[in-house]
Structures are given as C-alpha cells and as structure tokens.
C-alpha cells in the first residue's frame, strides 16, 4: 500500500530540534517522527551542512522504502523565501541569507520546497486538519515564541513582505515590558511565551511567594515546565501566572478577530502541548474582549490536529507546489 501513494520527506527545523518524517499525499505519517538536536557551532550558529548530514540517512532510507520521493519539504522557524528556499532571517539559528533550500537540493537531487514553519502549520490545518473547509482562520503557536499565520478568503495570507501574522509582536507595554527578540520592547510575546512564564515563576520563587516553585526549581532556576507542574497542583502563584497568560493571549487574539472577523483560531506549540487546557480557557476568556455578538457566538478556538503541524505542512507544501494535490491557493504565498 505504501508504494502506491506519493511520499515525501518532511523536515521541521526548530530553534533547538529537528523533526523528520515520511508523509504521503493524504497526510498520513509512515513510521515514526525522528527527532535530533540542531547542530550548532561554538558561536551558536546552526550548521546547515550538519543538518543535511542528519537528514541524509533518513532520506536515503525513505527512498529505499517508498521508491521515488516527490521531494523534500522544509519548514524552518524563521523568515524563509518560499520562492528560492533561502533562509532570509532565522534568529534562533543565527542565519541571515543562508541558501538552505538550494543546499538541500544539491545534497539529495530532489525538488525542495522550503517555507516558514507557521505558514506550513496553517497549510496543514487547512488541507488535512481541523481548519479544513474554513475560509478565515489564524494559526497561533505558543512555545518559545508567540505568533502565527493567517488564512483569509480561502488563501494563505503573507502580506506585502510576507511578515503578516506577527500578532505576538504587537506592543503591549513598552514602558514596563521586557526586550523582545524582534528588537522592540514589551511585545505580547515577552509576556506570554515560554521564557516569560519561566521568568514570572522565577520571580515568584525568589520573592518567597511559592515554596512549591522554589522546590521544583533546578539549581535555583525555575523552568516553564516547573510553572506548569505547580499550576497542575493548584499552586496559587503558578495559577496567577497562567491566568495572566490566558488573559493577555485572549486580549491579543481578540484584537486579531476584531480586525479580521475570523471564524477559527487553531492553537499549537510547546506550551499548548504541555497544557492543552489553555485552549478552552482562552476560548472562554476571549469572549470578554470580542466586539460583536456574532463573533462571541461563532468563533471557535481549537487545538492543533497534529503532533507537529509544521512538519505535516512541509509535506502539504510539497504535494501542492508539485501539483500532486490541487488547491485554489496561489503558491508560494
Ligand atoms: Zn517583538
């Protein structure tokens, strides 16, 4: 059965880890998702050649097992030129103008389709996931960062420069806020993403407000994970931290919905995987900030459909851009 379907190799290159999978044109994963750490040099610059060497045995084995591969889909955690596959700016990998797509193409002799991870995640949800059939939705990820991608009038929406969907970098409080990875100060991301949760947990432990967080800390350092552990045990300081995250995400996303009149927001990322109940909490809380009765009634906030939506999106991109699957999307937006 495997041999009859078109297969591709999908790779999701995150800020710390790489996920690899073989996915067919119906969105089925064949075998396991393989995980590996991103290879960095001593200057903390990710090594594209090292990533290719990690991919090599996986791609070769997939080609033996599934016959001719349609191509390789690359999803990368930064700004990728989907036309050329060039990594224009990937802060977490310290990449600026790295021709990564071309390098992967040269290494394996297969067509390569590269794009930004949030765009790919939205594409997967549209094609095979919970957003199938919707015409106006946003993909939203909360993890190390906070942001997403837009799907409007039945199309991916990249905007003028391809930077649309950066709702995590809307300024919330530049006076009391923290510096953001984008270069500004006080963006929503600096209040709600993983590092912000850990920082708030650290402050609570240091101030003596949470003996539990102090106890869960490792060498005096409170992690994001520890805050969620304390939260699940009802620790008042952790509950306050998470309630604040829910409130701020709700305020932020309500602005997106008030602006764009979306029907759905699909939520994913590391924080949602650790604490899926956030989706329901945000779904309830966002109604307080929505402008219209229609949005309060109709807006659906749902959890992502995949273990890693960006990985599946990288595959979706291969099948759509190679013409094996057809969509009214004009690629590569
Ligand atoms: Zn920012």
Strands, count: 13
CATH architecture descriptor name of the largest domain: 2-Layer Sandwich
Could you name the ranges where pLDDT drops below 50 across 5 or more consecutive residues?
none
- The neighbouring-strand order within the major sheet is 3-2-1-4-8
Profile the largest sheet.
5 strands, mixed
* Strand/helix succession: EEEHEEEEHEHEEEHHHHHEHHHEH
Task: Output mean pLDDT.
Answer: 94
Question: How many separate helices?
Answer: 12
Looking at CATH, which topology of the largest domain would you report? Nucleotidyltransferase, domain 5
Structural class: alpha/beta
Bound molecules: zinc ion
The domain tally reads 2
- The rough form would be described as globular
CA(first)-CA(last) distance: 33 Å
Q: What is the fourth-level CATH superfamily of the largest domain?
A: ATPase, nucleotide binding domain
Residue share in β-strands: 15-25%
Q: Give Rg in angstroms.
A: 20 Å
Work out the helicity level: 25-40%
CATH class of the largest domain: Alpha Beta
Question: If you had to describe this structure to a student in words, what would you say it looks like?
Answer:
It is a single chain. By secondary structure, the chain is an alpha/beta fold. The chain folds into 2 domains: 130 residues, Nucleotidyltransferase, domain 5, CATH 3.30.420.40; 174 residues, ATPase, nucleotide binding domain (Nucleotidyltransferase, domain 5), CATH 3.30.420.40. It is built from 12 helices and 13 strands. The protein has a 5-stranded mixed β-sheet with strand order 3-2-1-4-8, with helices on both faces. It has a 5-stranded mixed β-sheet with strand order 11-10-9-12-13, with helices on both faces. The protein has a 3-stranded antiparallel β-sheet with strand order 5-6-7, with helices on one face. The longest helix is centred in the last third of the chain and has 25 residues. The chain is globular. Bound molecules: zinc ion. Zinc ion binds next to loops.
């Amino acid at each position: 059965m495997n041999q009859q379907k078109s297969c591709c190799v999908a790779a999701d290159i995150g800020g710390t880890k790489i996920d690899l999978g073989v996915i067919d044109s119906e969105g089925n994963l064949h075998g396991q998702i393989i995980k590996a750490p991103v290879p960095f040099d001593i200057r903390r610059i990710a090594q594209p050649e090292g990533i290719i060497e990690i991919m090599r045995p996986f791609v070769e084995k997939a080609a033996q097992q599934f016959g001719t591969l349609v191509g390789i889909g690359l999803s990368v955690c930064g700004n990728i030129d989907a036309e050329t596959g060039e990594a224009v700016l990937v802060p977490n990998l310290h990449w600026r103008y790295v021709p990564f797509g071309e390098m992967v193409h040269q290494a394996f002799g297969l067509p390569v389709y590269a794009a930004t991870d949030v765009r790919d995640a939205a594409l997967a949800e549209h094609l095979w996931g919970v957003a199938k059939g919707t015409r106006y939705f946003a993909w939203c990820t909360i993890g190390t960062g906070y942001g997403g991608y837009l799907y409007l009038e039945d199309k991916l929406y990249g905007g003028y420069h391809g930077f649309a969907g950066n709702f995590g970098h809307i300024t919330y409080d530049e006076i009391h806020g923290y510096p953001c990875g984008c270069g500004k100060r006080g963006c929503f991301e600096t209040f709600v993403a993983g590092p912000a949760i850990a920082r708030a947990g650290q402050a609570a432990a240091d101030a003596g407000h949470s003996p539990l967080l102090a106890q869960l800390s490792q060498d005096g350092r409170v992690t994001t994970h520890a805050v969620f552990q304390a939260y699940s045990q009802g620790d008042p300081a952790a509950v306050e931290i998470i309630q604040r995250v829910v409130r701020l995400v709700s305020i932020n996303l309500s602005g997106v919905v008030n602006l764009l009149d979306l029907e759905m927001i699909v939520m994913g990322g590391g924080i949602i995987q650790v604490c899926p109940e956030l989706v329901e909490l945000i779904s309830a809380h966002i109604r307080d900030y929505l402008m219209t009765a229609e949005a309060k009634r109709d807006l659906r906030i749902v959890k992502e459909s995949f273990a890693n939506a960006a990985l599946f999106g990288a595959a979706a991109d291969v099948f759509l851009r190679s013409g094996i699957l057809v969509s009214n999307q004009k690629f590569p937006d």
